[in-house]
């Protein structure tokens, strides 16, 4: 009788899970961790621990990472062999829209990027070494091991692309609100903010000083130009009004702090150069990145969180001090090892989906060409590949997904999880075709969490009192060097 009941129970669970796979059960918490400026070919070469693990033309269980013969049209052979570089390198490649155009080398006949122009991308700051863009991160010290374990133990996306063809400021607008367009009408017309702000030093958004401008890109028959970086359109929190959210970020004016550029969230107290004082801003934007660790420890993790690092922990070339892999591991470990329970009795680990991505390609080489959308969006979408790792108790180990994703896929997942119609913003979420459902198998019993080994603990990030670096390409080298000298051991 006991065996019969167990058979019926398993059958019932299996039938329920098939339905659940079509209509994804709700995670109580979704955490979007956004790191900076890397490609799979640049950051994840160490996944290729055997010749069979990686391929530029992967099979179902292979990582799509190319380790040699990178395309370079400046070479007589048409290819170049990559060199290694530390994660905390002291130069930064240009990663503007102009740099994208050069690196892509679009073939007007095929409408596809030749992917052979990376040698034409100069350094934004720092002394640029030979073959600057043709570098991969050296893992001889094991610095990347937390990232590698996450990729191997959970889900890896072979074809994750940034939505935009440009740098951090517009990228974070897409990650938060599905567009970098100033308005919904501009998005429909293909008019997007394409670059980081000019003339700000380190401040962007509705609280930027007077005279701050961002460049617009638009189809040939639509006026472009420059505008002040304060926009008005719906974002993910607007279409999920009952979902409690938090945006953890290093400062109010950072180009990574996407809510500061949305007028109804920021509600600046001055037309320009003021401070954000809106109710949503005060209630949902936290200006200390490590507070995410404090909130998890206090059993106060919000339903939806965006987690933006300090520059030191960002992976941003020319800026970071190598803390990124441990920073990400500390968040995953805090959730996986939490003793907190939700009202339904589930643990944080059982009820949380963690999405780890990078906001743009940072000027580094990547061999995989993006799809270029038709007009009017095609002048600015899609950009180059970026890594994506999906972590949950329902994600199989060493899962490799070969669907094509972008930031809009993350937004579709969030919408679907919290009960909104997929694509309801009608921006990148509507243009994406996948909500990341392949990463979750609800026929599985929740996996037991295994801690991700790391050098730095959550406490070291919580107690790090160094002034946080913002991710600004104009950051002067002397300031970087000064803060590196005070880096914790």
List the topology elements.
Elements lengths: L1 H21 L6 E7 L4 H4 L26 E2 L7 E2 L2 E3 L6 E2 L3 H8 L1 E2 L4 E2 L9 E3 L9 E3 L7 H9 L1 E6 L7 H10 L6 H6 L2 E2 L20 E4 L7 E3 L8 H4 L5 E4 L14 H4 L12 H6 E2 L4 H7 L6 E4 L16 H13 L15 E7 L29 E4 L7 E7 L1 H11 L10 H4 L26 H5 L14 H9 L4
Parallel strand pairs: 1-16, 1-17, 4-9, 10-19, 14-15, 14-16
Antiparallel strand pairs: 2-3, 5-8, 6-7, 10-18, 11-12, 12-13, 17-18
Describe the overall structure.
This protein has 15 helices and 19 strands. Helix 5 packs parallel to helix 12. The protein has 489 residues and is an alpha/beta fold. The strands form 6 sheets. Strands 15-14-16-1-17-18-10-19 form an 8-stranded mixed β-sheet, sandwiched between helices. A 3-stranded antiparallel β-sheet has the order 11-12-13, with no helix packed on it. A two-stranded antiparallel sheet has the order 2-3.
The number of helical elements comes to 15
> How would a textbook summarize the main sheet?
8 strands, mixed
Given as residue ranges, the uncertain stretches (5+ residues, pLDDT < 50) are 1-24, 473-489
Number of strands: 19
Strand content: 5-15%
The rounded distance between the terminal residues' Cα atoms is 61 Å
Oligomer: single chain
Kindly provide the radius of gyration, computed on alpha-carbon positions and rounded to a whole number of angstroms: 22 Å
Decide which structural class fits the backbone: alpha/beta
Percentage of residues in helical conformation: 10-25%
Strand line-up across the major sheet: 15-14-16-1-17-18-10-19
Mean pLDDT figure? 89
The gross shape turns out to be: globular
């Amino acid at each position: 009788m006991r065996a019969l009941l167990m058979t019926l129970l398993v059958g019932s669970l299996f039938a329920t899970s098939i339905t659940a796979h079509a209509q994804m059960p709700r995670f109580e918490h979704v955490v979007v961790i956004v790191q900076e400026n890397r490609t799979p070919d640049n950051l994840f070469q160490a996944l290729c621990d055997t010749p069979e693990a990686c391929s530029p033309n992967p099979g179902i269980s292979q990582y799509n990472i190319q380790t040699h013969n990178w395309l370079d049209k400046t070479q007589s052979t048409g290819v170049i062999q990559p060199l290694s570089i530390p994660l905390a390198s002291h130069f930064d490649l240009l990663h503007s829209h102009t740099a994208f155009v050069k690196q892509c080398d679009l073939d007007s006949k095929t409408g596809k990027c030749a992917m052979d122009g990376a040698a034409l991308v100069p350094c934004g700051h720092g002394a640029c070494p030979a073959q600057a863009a043709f570098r991969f991160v050296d893992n001889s010290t094991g610095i990347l091991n937390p990232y590698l374990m996450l990729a191997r133990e959970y889900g890896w996306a072979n074809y994750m692309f940034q939505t935009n063809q440009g740098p951090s400021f517009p990228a974070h607008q897409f990650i938060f609100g599905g567009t970098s367009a100033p308005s919904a009408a501009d998005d429909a017309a293909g008019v997007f903010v394409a670059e980081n702000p000019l003339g700000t030093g380190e401040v962007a958004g509705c609280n930027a000083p007077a005279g701050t401008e961002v460049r617009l890109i638009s189809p040939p028959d639509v006026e472009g130009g420059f505008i002040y970086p304060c926009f008005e359109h719906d974002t993910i929190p607007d279409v999920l009004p009952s979902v409690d959210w938090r945006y953890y970020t290093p400062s109010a004016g950072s180009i990574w702090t996407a809510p500061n550029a949305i007028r109804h969230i920021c509600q600046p107290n001055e037309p320009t150069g003021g401070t954000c004082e809106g109710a949503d801003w005060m209630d949902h934007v936290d200006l200390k990145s490590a507070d995410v660790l404090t909130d998890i420890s206090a059993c106060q993790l919000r339903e939806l969180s965006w987690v933006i690092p300090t520059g030191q922990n960002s992976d941003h070339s020319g800026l970071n001090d190598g803390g990124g892999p441990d920073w990400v591991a500390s968040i995953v470990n805090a959730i996986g090892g939490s003793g907190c329970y939700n009202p339904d009795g589930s643990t944080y680990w059982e009820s949380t989906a963690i999405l780890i991505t990078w906001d743009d390609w940072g000027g580094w080489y990547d061999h995989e060409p993006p799809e270029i959308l038709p007009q009017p969006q095609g002048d600015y979408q899609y950009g180059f590949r970026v890594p994506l790792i999906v972590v949950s108790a329902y994600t199989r180990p060493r899962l490799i997904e070969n669907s094509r994703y972008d930031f809009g896929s993350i937004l579709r997942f969030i919408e679907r999880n919290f009960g909104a119609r997929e694509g309801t913003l009608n921006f990148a979420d509507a243009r994406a075709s996948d909500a990341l459902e392949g990463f979750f198998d609800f026929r599985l019993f929740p996996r037991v969490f295994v801690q991700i080994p790391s050098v730095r603990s959550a406490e070291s990030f919580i107690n790090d009192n160094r002034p946080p670096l913002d991710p600004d390409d104009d950051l002067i080298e002397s300031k970087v060097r000064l803060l590196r000298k005070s880096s914790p051991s």
